[in-house]
Amino acid sequence: MTSAAEHTVPWLRVAAAYSWRLILVGIVVYGAFTVLGRFHLIAVALFLALVITSVLHPVADVLDRVLPRSLSVAVALVGSVLLLFGLLALVGDTVADEATALSGQFRGGIHRIELWLQRPPFRLSPAKLADLQRQVTDYLNTHRANLLSSALSGLGRVVELVAGAALALFSSVFFIHSGERLWAWVRDELLPRRARPAWDRAGRAAWQTFAGYTRGIIIVAATNAVLVGAALLALRVPLALPLALLEFFAAFVPLVGSPVALGVATVVALAGRGPLTALAVLVLIVVIGQIEGHVLHPLVMSWAVRLHPLVVALSVIAGSIVAGVIGAIVAVPFISVVWAVLRTLRTTPP
């Protein structure tokens, strides 16, 4: 006698089998994100520590040839921190030196924007512009208390950021110094004996993918920053160096970060140099986007898992919905690592 399940339509049986598995995966993913949301500071700090490790581990390995391991790790970390603070100090000095000239340029730029808005196609009269300025001033005066509370909450965020950075540096010391031993302990103590070889391969593939993606995106971001800085200096746009640094950090958000940073550069160019320079910066956005999408990413990211642009776009949007800017940054490397692990676990060991 045949069972009722055997009389079921085959495609319906397959769909049901996949459905309960997808539901189970969804529950696990939801639970993981809930736990990470509760401990988001620790999760972000560990992610940043892994980024630091992927960048500085090769440097520490090179220094390890002439120095003890502990000293090579210290030199790599302290040197990178000093380099970062030196770059930020250079940007601060540049802004301070240009502050007087910039204030005059921006006042003249705002006046040019007002004249531009009065001409076609906008045709805003001076009275409407004055009324708009009055509305902005009234809004700031009315919501001063809310803006102050937002600023105070921002100070709390700064404290969290400092604490997270300290935890990331502290964790990266151990990851760079003895990451292999830490992974061996996790593998031998937390995994069943039969599962250790497969998960060891998966873990190494995950790290190779994450490190490759991180180093690749840093190279892409640095190249974008150099191109933007050179172009802005050639166009004599104010704050070229700070805007190039903004482009470097914005490039870590795929697809949307670089256009947003160059949009800020366009506004600065419009206020400081006029519409023609702003139009040139808009052309720069298109050119750098094409170079990044068709040259840098395929060339530099070839050692990491390459995802379809649609997958990257959906990952960035989903990550931003779940965790804001941090989610948008983490989404693509997270999906890349998951795909590398699944691909490794599917393969039959030789």
Folded structure, characterized:
This protein has 350 residues and is mostly helical. Helices cover 85% and strands 0% of the residues. The protein folds into two domains: 151 residues, no CATH class; 150 residues, no CATH class. The protein is built from eleven helices and no strands. Helix 1 crosses helix 2. It is globular. The mean pLDDT is 77.
Layout of helices and strands, plus pairs?
Elements: H1 10-38, H2 40-63, H3 69-97, H4 99-118, H5 126-142, H6 144-190, H7 196-234, H8 240-250, H9 257-272, H10 275-300, H11 309-346
Helix pairs in contact: 1-2, 2-3, 2-6, 2-7, 3-6, 4-9, 7-8, 7-10, 7-11, 8-9, 9-10
| Proportion of residues in helical segments | over 70%
How much beta, percentage-wise?
under 5%
How much is the average pLDDT? 77
Number of helices: 11
User: Which parts are unreliable, with pLDDT below 50 for 5 consecutive residues or more?
Assistant: none
Integer tally of domains:
2
How many DSSP-defined strands? Answer: 0
User: From N to C, what is the helix and strand string?
Assistant: HHHHHHHHHHH
Structure described in brief:
This protein is mainly alpha-helical.
Descriptive keywords:
single chain, 350 residues, mainly alpha, 11 helices, 0% strand
